[in-house]
Amino acid sequence: MSLQRFISEAISPWMKESGSESEIVLSSRIRLARNLKQFKFPLLASTEESHAIVKHVEQALQEKENEKIGPVELLLMDELRVNEKRVLVEKHLISPNLAEQSKCGAVLLSEDESVSIMLNEEDHLRIQCLFPGFQLLKGLETASSIDDWLEGQLTYAFDETHGYLTSCPTNVGTGLRASVMMHLPALAMTQQLNRILPAINQLGLVVRGIYGEGSEALGNLFQVSNQLTLGKSEKDIVEDLRGVVLQLIHQEKSARQYLMENSKLQLEDRVYRSYGILSNSRIIESKEATQRLSDVRLGIDLGLIEGISGNILNELMILTQPGFLQQFAGDVLNADQRDERRAALIRERLLLEEKTDN
After folding, report:
1. Residue-number span of the structural domain to which 322 is assigned
2. By Cβ atoms counted within 10 A, which residue in 58, 176, 300, 323 is the most buried?
3. pTM attached to this predicted model
């Protein structure tokens, strides 16, 4: 398979679109946790009960198609290869927890992969909507519409006082997790993040790495999300997050302007060194690749590098992960082989971009 075809088929269709503030906010996500009243929560359910949950949800959804998301495809975790599940994690379509779940885990995916509904993860249902750029309000509207539609077919575990009941107490109430994936290289370079991140935590928000809880913030990519779900409405939670994200966008833009005005030569040197390394390396580890890609994306956004799409960071951050490298190779690769393949894929992708520009 050619790289161009592989990219076309590997990248989720929603990722190819653009959204507001996309030079800093790569994506927006809304996730709702829900459980079914008549079944034990996943942590306590038997294998037979877990199978029954998947069948119950599948049957309910087959009876009436949702016009917002269209047809959905059911993928059963125990029918997927290890690497296929890894690819789904790398595309943020399922959680690492669901990928490791051997007991009747499943996911329902829309055709453009902007909607995924995980079954039998920590809760019976995890409804997730993904949008490019800064589109939290659109995400909330879409997720709420899907939630209402599902509630018309299913009976949720709900308490008049506490709201939606969930396996983890931190999700009780609205069951809502709103998050944005942000690229904050200038704040990292100017060493302002050490001051900003603790302040964000004090506001009831949390900052994590690219794959959520417990993951490392690679390539200056940070996931900012709400921590509290009880005591506030869905709209209030999203508005609070939006306010903080707008401040982060403003501060990142200010930091970028400062670097351009006060350290432009050093910034150009850093950007072009990274571009040169990515264009010529024969071996490159994942951590270095993500940092170099972050530098190049910053150079593109600031107009220091021309003729290359800003989406290259979004694409290569996914395509150079272990699962995708092995999917592209069609074989199991050890760490050294992955480093070699990663370097080759990046070189070829940059060359492809240059040919397109010419």
Report:
1. 261-357
2. 176
3. 0.89
